[in-house]
Amino acid sequence: IGLVPFSNYVNVGPANKFESWVNAPGGAWGGCVGSRPAPDTLIDGSVSVPFPGLNPSGCPTPLVELSNSATDLKNGISAMNPSGWTYVGEGVMWGLRVLSAGAPFTDGVAFGSLPATTNHQKFLLVLTDGDNTRAPNLPGSSSHNKNDQSLADANTRAACQEARDAGVVVYSIVFGTSVSATGQAVMTDCAGDPKRYYTAANAAALQSAFTEILSQLVTLRLSS
Q1: For residue 163, how far is the Cα from the chain centroid?
Q2: Range in 87-96, 135-144, 177-186 the model is least confident about
Q3: For residues 50 and 79, is the Cβ–Cβ distance under 8 A?
Q4: Cα–Cα separations (whole angstroms), residue 76 to 69, 104, 133
């Protein structure tokens, strides 16, 4: 299981500063990256164009790569803090990059790499408590300071489609009561099936949604 906190940025971890797929700024860097210019904005696996390293305010906590450690995952969840704006699309793309076998993170099992007698699936659960409020300035700057909800919504739908096209089963949850009808439509489309879309007005409802999704994951894994 992996964890990708997102605001209008994603934090890939400052330890990756000298990786070839990051163009980190000089001096201190907290791990935040912006989006790459088109046509590489919504692509997984291609690292010929590095991700722009940024030092913004409101950077989320670092993502957790795929792990079998419940402690690492719980620590990552506990460290999360609400800050910054919202751009769901890039959160989805980094979720896919964590799940996939291709760079920049290569811990995922490649589709078709297990014996033919073994079925396996990848799942992506996308959770937001707000509408998209920021999108990258494309083409050119990737500073995520463009207040273009229509672009952000289109990119979010495209990112979710990219994940589903890769064979990932996507679930989406809208948490709280601040997401507009437009935002809810985006998240419904993200899942690709209304049966995999959930709303949770409070913590109890969120726990119920997670429990129901878990039961479906177990059923899917046993029956596929």
Answers
A1: 10
A2: 135-144
A3: no
A4: 11, 20, 24
pLDDT of residue 37: 85
Residue with tokens 């033919």: 116
Measure the CA–CA gap between 134 and 88, rounded to whole angstroms. 9
Tell me which amino acid residue 59 is: C
CA 153 to chain centre: 14
What are the tens digits of pLDDT across the range 155-175?
A: 999 999 999 998 899 999 999
Between CA 178 and CA 159 the distance in angstroms is: 22
- Residue 177 exposed, middle or buried by CB count within 10 Å (0-12, 13-18, 19+): exposed
Give me the helices (H) in 29-87, please: 70-79
pTM across the whole model: 0.92
SS3 77: helix
17-28 per-residue burial string, b: 16 or more CB within 10 A, e: under 16: eeeebbebeeee
Instruction: Find the DSSP H helices in 100-202.
Output: 149-165, 181-191
